[in-house]
Specification:
This protein is an alpha/beta fold. The protein is about 35% helix and about 25% strand. It contains 7 helices and 10 strands. The longest helix has 18 residues.
Length: about 220
């Protein structure tokens, strides 16, 4: 039996404000297999985004371990973390974070800039990613020429262009109307089922959470 892709062991996270210690996560234990689609739900301030950021290597735990494919993420230095993230994690945010002066193709190409790929190879990868999200005909459009749903699909293409093992999505439908949100969720579902992408999603939206195979609730920093 294969070990889980992600193992979270006795994870704690606190922040300090002056002399005050503010606990955010307490004793989180979690195993996530390859190809899972997991949604985290819970009230604001329950630690959902913090947990996502820790697994994605954006933040470091106060105590405990996060192992991803056997790599203890919290032990990597900042340079090692940057390389690890670029190869293993694709990020999807509520706000698309597209660069307005770049076309869809150029936005999707960005994560490949620091790779050894030639420009021709980078564009070929970016075109494939845009085709995968159904935007091949929009690759030379600028963000202002796209709808919100199309912008989020460009952001998803940018997240998958490096073929990462894990996609982390923080409120990916939070800024979209109902129709656009359904299209984005359909796409994420397809990436999970057809490409076996492991997806970790934070959401307040029960309709989004329904798309996940597993829903875990956080309450005051603890997994319910």
């Amino acid at each position: 039996m294969e070990p889980p892709l992600i193992q979270v062991q006795e994870l704690y996270k606190s922040y300090h404000r002056d002399s005050l210690e503010i606990p955010v996560l307490r004793n989180i234990n979690l195993e996530i297999p390859q190809g899972e689609f997991l949604a985290f739900m819970g009230p604001s301030g329950s630690g959902k985004t913090t947990l996502l950021n820790l697994i994605a290597g954006i933040d470091k735990p106060t105590a405990g371990r996060i192992l991803i494919e056997g790599v203890e993420v919290g032990e990597l230095n900042e340079t090692e973390l940057a390389v690890w993230r670029s190869r293993n994690v694709g990020f999807i945010f509520q706000f698309y974070n597209l660069i307005p002066v770049l076309t869809a193709l150029e936005n999707v190409e960005l994560p490949l800039i620091l790779t050894p790929l030639s420009k021709k190879e980078r564009w070929a990868h970016a075109e494939m990613a845009l085709s995968a999200v159904g935007l091949a005909e929009r690759m030379h459009h600028y963000p202002r020429q796209l709808s919100g749903g199309q912008e989020q699909r460009v952001a998803i293409a940018r997240a998958i262009v490096t073929d990462p093992a894990i996609l982390v999505a923080d409120e990916p439908t939070g800024d979209l109307d109902k129709t656009s949100a359904e299209e984005v969720l359909d796409l994420m579902d397809r990436l999970n089922r057809e490409l076996n992408k492991t997806i970790l999603m934070v959401t307040h939206d029960p309709r989004a959470a329904e798309r996940a195979r597993i829903v875990r609730h956080l309450e005051k920093g603890e997994l319910a």
